[in-house]
Amino acid sequence: MKKHPTITLLESLNDALIYSIESAVCLAILYLLYHLFLRKLSPLQYNRAYLLIALLLSLSLPLIEFTYDPNQTLPVLNALNQFGREVSSEIIIEAEKAYSYTITATSQKPFLLWWEALILLYFIGVSFMGLRFLVRLRLIKEFIWYKRHVTRYKDRYFLVRTEGQMCNMSFLNYLFYDDSQNLSEEEKAQVIAHEKAHIDQKHSYDILFTELLKIFFWFNPLIYLYKDLISEVHEYLADQTAVQTSNVHNYTQLLIQTVLKKMGLDLASPFGKNAILKRVNRLKATHQSSWLNIFIPIPFVCALFFVFSFSEVETQKWEPQSIKVAAEIFKNASQLPEPEMGQNEWKKSLTQNMIMPKSPETELLQNPLNIRFKVDALGNLSGFRWVSNRSLPTEWIEREIIKRGKWKPAIVNGKTTTAEVLLSLVAIK
What we know:
Number of helices: 14
Strand order of the largest sheet: 10-7-16-11-12
Largest sheet: 5 strands, antiparallel
Helix content: 40-55%
Order of helices and strands: HHEHHHEEEEHHHHHHEEHEEHEEEHEEEE
Shape: elongated
Structural class: alpha+beta
Strand content: 15-25%
Distance between the termini: 27 Å
């Protein structure tokens, strides 16, 4: 029976809420890693790459789906994955119950149900953030058009003289320079070198990426924290480039004079002081960057990948039902082929490990499964083939049978001989 569209909508909303929780967990863990191990110790270009990759991974890992066989995985990993599965399988919205309420309690139904209000609030937030983003782009575009007569192209960027109407900044390949400032030629060169570093290193694309994420994930405060961290790294990188051709002391003095104006902050503002202080300290400090730090996040990323992108594959357990040999061997043999460990022990051991992943093909398997194989005169096993279900691969059962050692060969007329064995397997319900 086809589901009602409202039930489908509620199930999708439940999946979206779980996705938001899982992505937020990934963002939080990778954010903590950055603060604890990378923020002050790693190369700046690596920090930039880490933050961008952390955003991409956190938003994509909960969407990726792989399966794994828990019987071939370490118990600690199974426990870790099971914890993640319990979170992701948690039902936040009971679709059937919520739908039943909407059709049975219409007389008492509020103007908006909570889940309807949630959807409406989300789209209001997306609309507001999207409109805000477009307005800001429009303002920059109009300013560029307004200042087209005082714009010059040089060294792969457009220099826009703002004449005091906009602070020093850069966007894509446009460098906005406030020529109303009373700066010396050296200071002017430092300001332009700083902004040009933003252009050369394509920092605007990082900002555009995070701004787009803010539109769709406006409710997640971690996105804003990542945006601030990426902007912080951008400033460090630009400062690092600017001081390569100038004096560090003079450049830090310039920061104190101009950046606070650019940010529109009063000198007494604690936030402004802290922001500038970080940049000045970063320039003056001797950092012992270690490339070994790049390996710190790897095990954590692998763990997140396993927890949020892998789920247990459905399996079917089988057990041996009977072992038969050809009639002529059965009649004339003084010893029938059997496992060296004893038939009962062999069946018990095989039953514990005869687990096959379910698939559309295995759903059509006949029960019991019959497989033939040969036991040669030395007790080696070979020639595995299905009696029916010939399209089904034999590797999984061949591996489990061979793993349990050699067999005692058949003895006919006092001599060991090759015999074919028919093994029947039945599914355990």
